[in-house]
Structures are given as C-alpha cells and as structure tokens.
Amino acid sequence: MNNNKWIRRYKIIGARRFSNYWWASIICIGSFCFLFTGLASYLNISIFIFKSENIQFFPQGLVMSFYGLLGVIFSVYLWLTIFWSIGSGFNEFDHLKQKVRIFRWGFPGKNRRINLYYDFTEVEGIRVEVQQGLNPKRNIYLQIRGKREIPLTRIGQPLTYEQIEKKAADLAKFLKVSLKSDI
C-alpha cells in the first residue's frame, strides 16, 4: 500500500504466489515420472531410476504415459500463468483526480492489460463478504453504479476478519462512501 495522503495503491500478487510455484513444481516432477515410466515400459528398458520390468505397456504403461502427458500439459499451463503473472496488478484510489483505477494482467493477446477507470461519483459503496466454513471467503468489493461489483482482494490468501474489516473501513472512509457487510 502506498501511504500517500491523497493516493492509495494496493498491490495484487496474482499468480506469483508460493502455492502456485509449489504445485507447478510437484505436478511437473510427478508427471515426468509417470511419462518416463510409461515410455520405459513401451521400450522395455530402464530410463534413469524408472524401471519397468513389472509394468506391461498395455494397459498400465499406456495409462501412465497418458496421465504423464496430461500432467506435463497442466504444469506448462501453471508455469505460463506464473511467468505471465496472470491476475497481478493494483487497485489505485486517487483523491486528487477523483479516480479509481483497477489494473490487472491477463493472458497474452489484445486484452492482456485490464485497465478499468471509474470516477468517485460512480462508486456507490464498499461491500464486505464473509463466509465461514470449510472454504472461507473474505472479500472486499467495490460497488459501482449499475449493480457492478469489482473484487478488490487477492484470491487464495484470505485475510483475517479483523484485517478485512479494517481495510474495508479505511477504504470506505477514504472514498467517503457507505460500507455494507454480508456476514
């Protein structure tokens, strides 16, 4: 967060989180192990540590090759989302220009940059959504005229109830709008 009195900027991490690096690495390693074991059973040889004496190619080796190939494709997708930093960006609230700017990086193409601008007059309020349970949700939404709601919080990194409440209250006070809560 930028601590300027007139401009507030909140950085959004996006796909470059530790959990994405972790799962992309685990899936990549596991899928290559499956793929090499399937190939070793087809060629009837041992590749590195992948011994295939007890695995017949049809059906076990073929299935392992198929799952290995799917895992490689999925891990490439995860690594590309990390490399392109999908979902990262910032939320900027400028009191001097009376503007709200929401910026995010998307997938490559003509809409790679997602850049939304709103006047302070278009902002109706801030809404907090809190759901407890097995998969808790703690989100802050910017409510725009026309019933649009734009999420302002990061996905995958839930804040504590106190943190989200304080952040939403500070933002509502800064924008001079109402604060609504769905608890």
UniProtKB/TrEMBL annotation:
<feature type="transmembrane region" description="Helical">
    <location>
        <begin position="21"/>
        <end position="45"/>
    </location>
</feature>
<keyword id="KW-1133">Transmembrane helix</keyword>
<feature type="transmembrane region" description="Helical">
    <location>
        <begin position="65"/>
        <end position="87"/>
    </location>
</feature>
<protein>
    <recommendedName>
        <fullName>Photosystem I assembly protein Ycf4</fullName>
    </recommendedName>
</protein>
<dbReference type="GO" id="GO:0009535">
    <property type="term" value="C:chloroplast thylakoid membrane"/>
</dbReference>
<keyword id="KW-0793">Thylakoid</keyword>
<comment type="function">
    <text>Seems to be required for the assembly of the photosystem I complex.</text>
</comment>
<dbReference type="Pfam" id="PF02392">
    <property type="entry name" value="Ycf4"/>
</dbReference>
<keyword id="KW-0150">Chloroplast</keyword>
<keyword id="KW-0602">Photosynthesis</keyword>
<keyword id="KW-0812">Transmembrane</keyword>
<dbReference type="GO" id="GO:0009522">
    <property type="term" value="C:photosystem I"/>
</dbReference>
<keyword id="KW-0934">Plastid</keyword>
<keyword id="KW-0472">Membrane</keyword>
<dbReference type="InterPro" id="IPR003359">
    <property type="entry name" value="PSI_Ycf4_assembly"/>
</dbReference>
<dbReference type="GO" id="GO:0015979">
    <property type="term" value="P:photosynthesis"/>
</dbReference>
<comment type="similarity">
    <text>Belongs to the Ycf4 family.</text>
</comment>
